[in-house]
Amino acid sequence: MVRINILIAVIVAAVTYGFLAYINRPEIEPMWPVIIKGFSFSPMRAQHDPGAGNLPGADEIEQDLQLLSGKTHSVRTYTVAGAMADVPRLAKKHNLNVALGAWIDNRLQNNLVEVEQAIKIADQNRSNVVRVIIGNESILRNDVPIGLLGQYLNHVRAEVGMPVSTAEPWHVWIDHPELAQYVDFIAVHMLPYWEGIDNEGAVDYIDQRMQQLQEMFPHKPIVIAEVGWPSNGRTRKEAVADEAEQAKFLRRFLNRAEEKDYTYYVMEAFDQPWKRKLEGAVGAYWGVYDADRHAKFEFVKPIVGVPEWQSIAAISVLLAAIIFALLLTDAASLNRRGRIFLAMIAYLLTTVVVWIAYDYSRQYMTVGGVLVGIVLMLGMLGVIMVLLIEAHEWAETLWVKGRRRALKPIKIDDDELPMVSIHVPAYNEPPDMLINTLNALAKLDYPRFEVIVIDNNTKDEAVWKPVEQQCQSLGERFRFFHKSPLAGFKAGALNFALTQTADKATVIAVIDSDYCVEPTWLRDLVPQFHEPQVAIVQAPQDYSDLEENAFKAMCFAEYRGFFHIGMVTRNERNAIIQHGTMTMVRRRCLEEVGGWGEHTITEDAQLGFMLFSAGYQAVYTSHSYGKGLMPDTFNDYKVQRFRWAYGAMQILRHHANELLGKSPSKLTTGQRYHFIAGWLPWIADGINLIFNFAALAWSLALIYMPTRIDPPLIIFSVLPLALFCFKIAKVVYLYHGVQIVASIRETIAAAFAGLALSHTIAKAMWLGIFTTGRPFIRTPKKEQSVALFQAIGAASEECLIMLALWSAAATLYIQTSIDTWDMLLWIVVLLVQSLPYFSAVLVSIVSAFPNLKASLITPEKLIIDRQHLAKQLRDSK
């Protein structure tokens, strides 16, 4: 088996390496010219911010000009404020010409200062100031009217002896041809990325626009005042921003510019991190050199998508091999297909994680960016962990050679069978229902048993008196106790029943008051206690009212997944969740761990954990030996799941040291894994609630500050979507692969019912962590269905969050520009995140219509078949 594991790991690693090699194969592009015609020049470094008045000094400017000397003929500036006024003088020392820029915006007084300063500097540096550009995209930003800008331009043209213009994108010149009367040449910006043009056609696109401008302004020289492509940022339509795309675009353009004899200024010489405030994250990454003045790509050699891909591949393969090995711990029963599946998941996820970490590390970081990155990375790791756990359960459910701990029938003579004391706790239960439960117990085919009914705290005698009378009529095996007050909820009732148990009883069995058991329940399962280390024998919860209506059919489909998938895989490592019905426990072991825990609202799961911690074993069968009743309303369904999730968090809190190996315990590694991993998806629901509130806050920022806030990076949006899709695929695949349900309608119903509980579980998780002493709330049975408005009220919180997510998605779609995959995917994330809340509203509404037939969920033929099968089983017994 070790050889097979190694072979699988090597093959999948080779595929991973080969895939990364393929997508990063070198691409031959035209070489970068020895000297280009011009660079847009902003000498700001990472610490500079013109908006805050933090500008570079003359020494820093000269260092940059020295770096560009011999690489370009000219530089273009944008302002004459501060030390930028010295650029022409300093550039002359390094044989560089200057396209002198003056900044024009809505500060009219400042505009006059810039204009006069530009005239003065141009006059002082006639030898190397070759053109003057007054204003940069001033008309595009609507900072000044064309007439006022024209006055500035005419004034400068009258005062300086070199060509004068203003710089605008090509479409502004097309839309405002009157602007041309004020300039000596057309200074145009050609930035195909902002228009979402695919890199493959970007240079041809520039040619087309240049021809259009030449035809419109035949007597005006055209200078491309900005041309470039960012090395990082959001994908806009077809335009991808990364270093390889930047390199390909610029090398192709420069080759075309030589052919066409374009005059141009590459946008830009150096990255400008401060521009994130103006243009979003992408604004920082237009430089050919990064903020530390290092070239960002190869100028001559073939271009590789990610030059460090081999290191990424090596780290991915190493991490994947470690995770794959961990996934195969105690996995002797997994067949080859299961191992291949886990290897593929491990290698895929580690490659994605390493790639995301690499990509995020390439950004210019602020304190806020680092903090956001840490939070997102932690969230990503949480998603990865849940994905691995889900994949592990998927593999161990479908692709195994056999079950190592499947229940094996044990035959014991009647005179050797131990006495069983069956405890039936009840509180305010419908007497007819409980009497049916007792009548079924009376039919048990077992030689020695007693039944103790303990009704605690029911006030109305009309409720418990008929049950007492029925116990008397069933004979001495049945004893009834009514205790009020009695503390401890269900656990208190069970502990009281334990004090009344016959001395000869060595096995305690517990069923809920609504369960009607099969006659063979004890005879089939009690012999399992012949093994001295067995402390628990558990049968699944099952339900008799699944055909009552559509709501219960949905619930039934959802319940079955846990008892026929989760419990089966947990049983392989002796780590089942004990349930307070259809369960049996060895009396000696129960008393050894202190009885039923009254400090928790899930005394059953708590007892199971304590017995495992003491080194005992459990036996589980997925065969049904009894059926109860499901909740009648969505609110009751939520109450039940809240209790389970809250209790799980209590167990994790109280026994964290044992689970983490910090205090003495006989828990095995497999048991620790299942108790933590089994409840991790519930913890993920809690974290997801925080994510949703953060998503709404982020969306509000996108709506009200669209120029300052970007949507989350696509890499972080993809993971929650991937987790959601993976879980849905798992439900569909497993429900049919294990034949949990027999129709696609039931599978969809199970998915909706499960999603509907997400918000309830999330609240239970947080309350379970930060609060104590929540009261035990019983799940009512045979309750009246609620009206429609009451049903919607039962899901009011979910409805409000759903509407908030929908409103955010709709507003973003209508108000913002959907020109990046990041924004589009973020809207999809908001809609997907709303599905659990929509499911809650839907399921609650369905529960308000008790006359909706179960056949809407379960095909009529399947209902008839199940009824016929149940009759056959009853007849055979």
Question: Roughly how many Å apart are the termini?
Answer: 44 Å
Portion in helices: 40-55%
What is the gyration radius calculated from CA atoms? 36 Å
- Tally of individual helices: 30
Low-confidence stretches: 866-874
Mean pLDDT: 91
Largest sheet: 8 strands, parallel
Structural class determined from secondary elements: alpha/beta
Percent of residues in beta strands?
5-15%
Number of strands: 17
> Strands across the major sheet, in which order?
1-2-3-4-5-6-7-8
The rough form would be described as: elongated
Structure report:
The protein is α/β, with parallel strands linked by helices. The chain is 52% helix and 10% strand. The protein contains 30 helices and 17 strands. It has an eight-stranded parallel beta sheet. α22 packs across α25 (758-770), α23 packs across α28 (821-833) and α27 crosses α29. The radius of gyration is 36 Å and the shape is elongated.
Q: Tags for this entry?
A:
877 residues; alpha/beta; eight-stranded parallel beta sheet; seven-stranded mixed beta sheet; 10% strand
Summarize the structure.
With 877 residues, the protein is an alpha/beta fold.
List the helices and strands and how they pair.
Layout: H1 2-23, E1 36-40, H2 58-68, E2 72-76, H3 87-93, E3 97-102, H4 108-124, E4 129-136, H5 146-159, E5 164-169, H6 170-175, E6 186-190, H7 199-216, E7 222-227, H8 243-260, E8 263-266, H9 276-279, H10 309-327, H11 336-361, H12 367-398, E9 419-426, H13 431-442, E10 449-456, H14 461-474, E11 478-483, H15 489-499, E12 505-510, E13 516-517, H16 521-525, E14 534-538, H17 550-571, E15 583-586, H18 587-592, H19 603-613, E16 617-620, E17 626-627, H20 634-654, H21 656-659, H22 669-704, H23 714-737, H24 744-756, H25 758-770, H26 788-794, H27 796-815, H28 821-833, H29 835-847, H30 860-876
Parallel strand pairs: 1-2, 2-3, 3-4, 4-5, 5-6, 6-7, 7-8, 9-10, 9-12, 10-11, 14-16
Antiparallel strand pairs: 12-15, 13-17, 14-15
Helix pairs in contact: 1-10, 1-11, 7-8, 10-11, 11-12, 12-22, 12-23, 13-14, 17-24, 17-29, 20-22, 20-25, 22-25, 22-27, 23-24, 23-28, 24-29, 26-29, 27-28, 27-29
